[in-house]
Amino acid sequence: MTTAADIMHPGARWVPATETLDRAAQLMRELDVGALPVSDPNDPNERMCGIITDRDIVVGCVAAGRDPSRVTAGDLCEGTPRWVSADADVNEVLREMETHQIRRLPVIDENKRLVGVISETDLAHHLSDDQLAEFVEQVYA
């Protein structure tokens, strides 16, 4: 059985909700990623309160005429964050991403700690052509 841990990109990093978007963008560049899970710094367990993407920064901040050095990651987080357990079956991963039409899915361990992120690229490397086609149809519909 293929699990989330088998297909995820390991070593994901949090960005605190209080971090400015310019710093979040710099971290994305350093890590060569397009999204970062956002943690709640008021939670002693640093639980996820959202995810921020490079597109969120451009569209929700820069294009709106806002200053990324004054807007925080928490300011742009919306909705309920989604994640999957590291031992989740790949079908559960697909179901979660397809149901919620998301392209990146944080992966947590049994202690609720972030251990990785699954992206479309990760799926492309591990799914059959039929599974990948189904995913694309559901997420981009």
Automatic annotation (TrEMBL):
Protein known as: CBS domain-containing protein
Domain CBS: 8-69, 76-134
Pfam families to which the protein is assigned, alphabetical: CBS
InterPro entries: CBS_dom, CBS_dom_sf, Diverse_CBS-Domain
Keyword annotations: CBS domain
Keyword 4Fe-4S on entry: no
Keyword Protease: no
